[in-house]
Structure formats: structure tokens, C-alpha cells
Amino acid sequence: MKFLKFATSLLLSGALFYFLHFSHGIIPPLGKLLDPFSGFWQNATSEALAPQEDISIPGLQQPVKISYDSASIPHIQAQNLHDLYLAQGYVTAQHRLWQMEFQTMAAAGRLSEIVGSRAVSYDQRQRRKGLGFGAENALSMLEKDTVLFSYVQAYSEGVNAYIRQLSPKDFPLEYKILNYNPEPWSPYKTTLLLKYMADMLTGGDVDEQNTNALKLLGSSYFALLYPDFPEGLDPVAPAGTVWDFEPVAVTTPENVQFPLLFSADSTEKREPGIGSNNWAVSGSKTASGSPILANDPHLALNLPSIWYAMHLQSPEVNTMGATLTGALGVISGFNDSIAWGVTNATRDVRDWYKITFRDSRKEEYLFDGKWLKTQKRIEEIKIKGEESRFDTLVFTHHGPIVYDENYQTSHSLAGFALRWIAHDPSQEQRTFFQLNQARNYKEYTEALPYFSCPAQNIVFASNQGDIALWVQGKFPLRWQDQGKFLLDGSQSAYDWQGFIPQDHAVHILNPERGFVSSANQHSADANYPYYIYDNSFEHYRNRRINQRLTAMTGITPQDMMALQMDNYNLKAAEALAVILPSLDSLSASAESEKIKKALQQWDFMNTALQSAPAYFEIWWHYFYRELWKDLWAQNKALRWPDSYVTIAMLQNFENSIFQDNDTLLFHHDLRDLSQSTFAQMVDSVARWEEKEQKPMEWGRLKKSSIQHLAQLAPFSVDNLMVDGNRSIINANSGRNGASWRMVVELSTPVKAYAIYPGGQSGNPGNPAYSDFIEPWRTGKFLSLHFPARGDSLSEVYRSHQLLPNPEQP
């Protein structure tokens, strides 16, 4: 009863929140929402995650058993793959229907249909950057793969079978609050979901900022502040790796020129903090003698969680792990024979081309001295409570024109075309379909070539003793610096010249050091014969992981869990080694002395209850801004030198950090800079503590939160005291973090552990909506129940069957 009172109060708060924050054209009829039999109360009274009775649905060929363990994870046992994936679609929709649909409507640019005109600009941008276009291309390729397409159709049939059984009183709560109905699922929506992930992980670039910096600084200073290969790298493929292939030749144009412009900071940027860790250690380093694999992808933390844990079993497959709600199979997981995990490969796969149109009609554009025809498509944006708006999209062979006189006219990239791998036909769904069934390294490598975007570091371990990692994606063949800056779209010499062959991709198999790992760092060093680029390579998590794995022996799964929770701040350790000694001669107040002493005694662990991590983060913020203040003052779209490069410069240049260039003054005295920004930090801490009436602690300053996907405040979790931060293995910042932690030992039987910050249910009124958050926060893992192929689950919380119903359509 206590829970019921709490839940109904919470849900009513959500309704009132939307009544107060949305116009009357968007809120639902309150009588309908508050109806005790069909409104939000109906959702609040549902304690069970799944029914116990058997259910008849059309499309099944044979009965399917659904069993739930004590963690509310479904174990689906089917007698064929068609039924397995139909059941997966049905069960996923049972618990995550609203999330599934909302994500794909966001990807397609259809949120205006739900929330009205406030989302028109967002919807227009989604369509103009080509997510729907890319999904259509992916669907066309999927349809040619008749076997896989039949299973994706079966998944859709399962989702739709669940939807057809719903009456309005059964709709997930968000449908009631936002006053709309679910619509049928389709394979197109599955491809949209995968493009949504591509956008999340590769939807940012700094071509414009780099171009501005090149014009402002000149090539020498640009290379100094933004080096492609800073010293001290620890890449995915160990430094010095010898590549035993003949690279494809790439022709560099003569007299390369980039379209130079100055602009305000206007382009979209990738969400800061998105990254990931994964690694695998060989049996030579483990206590059991069996390989162990670990994976923790870092994403924006939302409720419902992006992941849904599931076990899928049929005569062909026995796999378990994290699924994406809307795609079939397991994305990060394991089976009887192998385990795999994914991290973002951090590769720039988006370029911007300046287009010369013949006239304002944009029907032709100049290319190699000829006028080529553009293609146009008219997009209807339906708006809740209003008439539709129409937008004309213009496509060149490079890709769509994102900004023009019809959308953000003054945008500095108006008239540029976006070339993006996510637009190309692709088959990412097949990669996971095959990985779920793979039994060895050979079958793992056979699954990889289908995966194009977003590029991923896909780690592997098997019960045969192999460990491996491939940097997998579709990567353009580029000449040096191609894609780093804005490009001329009127010459074919600036087009991509093909793609890096699959067998030339960066990969490692059974290295002598006994482990493979990735944490969004450089794929390889400068010896790799192809030009690769990104602006956001990681430099701290990867080095800490490799330092620890090198030193560790007799490793257990518990050791790997502890490493995923490692809070050592390598960035702080290296930065403070340079700037902290500058305070030796500082004549300071008692408060300053207290803070300085805390930093001197700090063990560099970013735990939530410590003050020193907060002091460092604030000090580094002021120091970094003051160091690069001339860049801040330019009021242009510019990219900031990253912390790794900045700290290296501080180490190498000592007090006189930089010489002046013609445009900017980079000359600083390190002691003066350290002391003045330290004083700013001390003042900031005092102001914060006076306002909050609490001593400053890292967790209180960071204010980690897990937000509802539609930003419904009552269904979010705020002010979590969470350890870690960006550039730390336990990479939890304010809104981003470890979205799924998994550790798998490939012993007999397989031992697996996992956790994620959410719960299995998408219903805020259900106990399983957020019951994993506290164990996730404190570093505890679920021991996954994984029966051998053909065995039944030993611990059953509740179960039912899905039965064929040939009489229904």
C-alpha cells in the first residue's frame, strides 16, 4: 500500500507537471487522464512485470515459453528462430513500447505529432540531416537479405500482436499524458532505431571549427594546438604494430584549398561524455585459466534505460545480454561459446562540402565543370493541433543540404552538403544476428563486415581461449587532412576515393601482452598506412586500463568489476603535478591553505564524498579558460585544445608556455596563472558552500541524474551521489555514464555478471522501473542466470507461454 500511495502521488505529479508546462492544445483531456479505471491510476496499480497466464497470439508456429528470473529478466525459449524473434518483439513491447516508439519518432523527425509546434525545428533538423533517408537505404538492403528480413518482420509481428491486445486503459503512461495512441511497428522502424544510434555516436564533427582555427592561427599553430598524434599515445593496436598488407593508394589533389570562413559557434556537437570501455584478458592472466571479457558503454543516462536485458534460446542460438528496444537479438552479450562487447570507435565519418548552385532554384550544382541535377523530396511535418508544415530537402551526390533559406538561413554552413556514412545502405542488424550464434573467432570475423555505422571497437573472447578486438566500420579512403576541414564540393578530387578494405581494418588477435582493450582512444599510431581522424580521442581512461591490466595477474571476474568501477583520475594527477607546485610561495588565507592541503593529500580517486575532486575540477575549469582566453574572446566557432595536449604543453614549456603568434597572445607565466585561478576556485567554493549550506563534496557538485526520455521530471532520478567523472574508467559525469556494465568469464559453465542504471520495466509505476539504479550506483552486479542450451531456468520468478492462434489475423 505504501508503494501504491507513493506511485499514485508520483504519477499525479507528472500529470500536473504537464498541465502546467504545456499549452491546452497538447495536454490530454483531464477526465480521461484521471479516470480511475483507464487513466494513469491503471498504470500505478500494476505491480507485476509480466502476466502469469498463457497468451494466444497470431503468427507463432509453435508454443514459446517465457520465464522471468528474480531480476525480472525474461528468458525466451522457442523452437525456431522465427518464433524466437516474434516473441522477443512481443516481450519487449510488453515492457518498453512507449520508449521503442518515441525513439524512432525522434529519429524520424515526428515529435511535433506528439508535442506540437515546439518540436518543429527539431523535426526539421532530423529530416534535413538525413536520418529517414539513411533508414530507407538500410531498409532496402535489409529487404534483399530475405532470411534476416523475415526475422525482422517476425519481430515486428510480435510488437504488433502486443499492440493489438491493448485497450486505451492498458496504454503505457506516457501515451496517456501526451494523449496519443501507439501505431504499428515495422522493419523500417528498426532501421530508424539503428540510425538513431548512429546519430547519437557519430552525429558531431568540428570541420567548421577546424577551418576557422586554420584561418585564424595558420597551419603551424594549428598543428601545435591540435596534433593528429600527440606524444605518449596508447592506441587500440599497440604502438609500433606492423601492418602486413599493401594499402590502397589514395591520390591527394594538387594545390589543396579549403573553403575558409569565419562564423559563430553554430554546428551541432556530439554529447560530451559519450564513450565506452571494453577489454578482454586471456586465460594466461586469469585465475581460472579462461578468458574474461568486460564491456561498459557510456551514453546519456535515461529512463527507461536504452538497454533491456534478455535471454534468447532456440535450437540455433542461446544468447544473453543487453538488447536495444526495437532491434532483434543481443547487442552486448555472450552465448555458450563466445562473448562480445562494443565501444564507440571515435572516428570522424561526416564531411561538409560547399555547393555551388546554378541559381536560387537549387536544381543544378557545379561539379567538375558540369551542372548536375539535384534531387528534391518534400517532407510533411504533421503538427498536433495545427496544420502540417512542408519542407523541401535538396540532395546532391554528397548528401543533403542541411541548412538553407528554409532552415536556419544565417547558419554558417548554409549551402553545404553533408556526406555521412549513416546515409549509406548498411546491414548492422546482421552483424548481431550472426554474433548471437557465433561459436569461434572465425564466425566472429564473418559477422563483422556487415557493420558500417556507428563505427565500433568490437571486443571478443571465446571458450577456446582466443581474445580479439576489431575496429569495425565503413571508413572512407582519405588523403591527409581530408575531412578535417570544410571541403570544396565542386571538384571530384575532394570526394572520398572508396573505403578501407575490411581486412585492412585495425585489429588484434591474441597479443603477447595477454589482453586487448579500447576506451575511445586512437585506433593506431602514425604507422597505420591510412589517414584516420577524430577530434575527441580519449587519452586517460585507455592508459589507466592498460596500466592496470598489464600489472594484474590471477584475474577474477570480481577484479574486472572492480576495474570497471575504478575512480583514479589520471588527468588530475598529471595536471596537478604541474600546477600545484606553483602555489608553494602563495600567501594565502586559512581556507586556501585547507584546500591546498586537501589537493596535496588527495589520492586522485574521484569518489562522491571527497572534496578534493571538486576543488580540482573547479580549478582546472578556471585555469583552462584563462590559459585559452584569447580563443574564448574570438567569438567564433572554434575548437579548444584538449586537456591532454594542454597538460603536455605545460610540462614541456614550463613557465613560458607559448610564444606569441600574429593574432593571439599565448604567453603566460605559469606561477601567476596557477595562483590567480586558484584564488578564483577558492572564492567559487566559498560561494557554493554559502548558498548550499553544506561542505562541498564531489557528488554534490556533480549532481548526477538519470532523466526520463521525454524529460518528464517526476519520472527522473536527480542528485545521485555517484563516483567517477569523464576521462575516468568509472566515467559517470552529470548526465552521462556507464549505461551497461557486463563481465563474462568463458569458463564451463559460462559465468556472467551485469547491471545498468534503470530497470526492466518502462512503467514508472512499476517497482522494476528503477530498481537497478542503487546497485549500479554502488558498484554491485547481478549474477546472470544462464542455462545451457536446451536447459530450463532453475530460478523462475513467474512464467507463461505464448501460443499460436491461427484464427486471428
Automatic annotation (TrEMBL):
CDD domains (UniProt xref): Ntn_PGA_like
KW Protein transport (keyword) present: no
InterPro entries associated with the record: Ntn_hydrolases_N, Pen/GL7ACA/AHL_acylase, Penicillin_amidase_A-knob, Penicillin_amidase_dom1, Penicillin_amidase_N_B-knob, S45
Assigned EC number: 3.5.1.-
One Pfam family in the UniProt entry: Penicil_amidase
Keywords on record: Hydrolase, Zymogen
An example molecular function term from Gene Ontology annotations: hydrolase activity
Gene3D superfamilies attached to this UniProt entry: 1.10.1400.10, 2.30.120.10, Glutamine Phosphoribosylpyrophosphate, subunit 1, domain 1, Penicillin Amidohydrolase, domain 1
Protein name as catalogued: Penicillin acylase family protein
Organism (species): Shiella aurantiaca
